């Protein structure tokens, strides 16, 4: 009986070590970008600088972000002179929109800087400042609010202070802003978010929120693992949660 308990304990320890090593192998796509949120008040440590990355938002990161940040195909990285500095991807090639007779292109063609309105839990209207940035030819771009930056892949339209996505089934309303979607996700802290995308799934606008969760396996081994939460941009309901199969062992 005692022997079986010892063997079982050893197996649990070995499982924990295996999961820790597997988790540590999941290196961030950008190790140069920290998970620390930054702004004019929250300053970065020495050797780091505050940058706003497309689809990531404000983060403390190493200098010269264009040396490691990967822009989409047919675009090139650039930095806007502002604080925090904006990392931008400019269109490259014959399909790019022209901005002058010389066919020159610009970084981040601003489509909309406006106010949209949603309803709170008491059905009262709430105003939000948003910006829609076009980053590549077509309908891809960045939806930016005061607290979040989200990649979108379908055309977004503002009509009568309402935000819509052009889907294969027609215009669908976006009633949930990114920070509200983050709040109901499995990674509700902005500092834990790796990437947010607003896209069409089943003819509806959906937020795909990827974040990092820290826990301990068997209360002993510290680990961090990625969780993807999908949230309806129309209702705010959680559609699905994707995480490692072994996450039930982590608390």
Strand order of the largest sheet: 5-6-7-8-12-13-14-15
Shape summary: globular
Number of domains: 2
Q: What distance lies between the first and last C-alpha atoms, to the nearest angstrom? A: 29 Å
Write down the overall mean pLDDT.
75
Account of the 3D structure:
The protein is mainly beta. It has 2 domains: 32-107, no CATH class; 108-251, no CATH class. It has helices spanning 2-24, 178-183, and strands at 49-53, 57-61, 75-80, 85-91, 109-119, 125-134, 141-144, 149-152, 156-159, 162-167, 170-173, 193-201, 204-217, 221-232, 238-242. The strands form 3 sheets. The protein has an 8-stranded mixed β-sheet with strand order 5-6-7-8-12-13-14-15. A 4-stranded mixed β-sheet has the order 2-1-4-3, with no helix packed on it. It has a 3-stranded antiparallel β-sheet with strand order 9-10-11, with no helix packed on it.
């Amino acid at each position: 009986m005692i022997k079986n308990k010892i063997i079982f304990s050893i197996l649990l320890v070995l499982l924990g070590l295996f999961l820790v090593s597997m988790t540590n192998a999941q290196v961030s796509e950008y190790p140069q970008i920290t998970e620390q949120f930054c702004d004019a008040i929250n300053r970065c440590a020495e050797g780091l600088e505050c940058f706003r990355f497309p689809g990531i938002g404000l983060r403390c990161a190493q200098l010269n972000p264009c040396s490691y940040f990967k822009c989409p195909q047919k675009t090139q990285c650039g930095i806007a002179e502002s604080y925090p500095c904006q990392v931008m991807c400019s269109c490259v090639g014959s399909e790019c929109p022209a901005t002058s007779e010389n066919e020159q292109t610009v970084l981040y063609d601003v489509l909309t800087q406006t106010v949209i309105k949603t309803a709170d839990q008491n059905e009262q209207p709430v105003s939000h400042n948003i910006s829609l940035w076009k980053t590549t030819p077509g309908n891809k771009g960045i939806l930016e609010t005061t607290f979040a930056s989200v990649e979108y892949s379908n055309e977004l339209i503002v009509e009568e202070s309402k935000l819509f996505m052009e889907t294969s089934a027609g215009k669908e309303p976006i009633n949930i802003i990114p920070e509200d979607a983050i709040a109901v996700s499995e990674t509700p802290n902005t500092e834990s978010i790796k990437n947010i995308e607003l896209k069409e799934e089943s003819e509806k606008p959906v937020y795909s929120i990827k974040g990092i969760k820290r826990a301990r396996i068997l209360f002993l081994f510290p680990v961090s693992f990625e969780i993807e939460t999908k949230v309806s941009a129309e209702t705010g309901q959680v559609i699905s949660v994707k995480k490692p199969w072994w996450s039930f062992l982590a608390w």
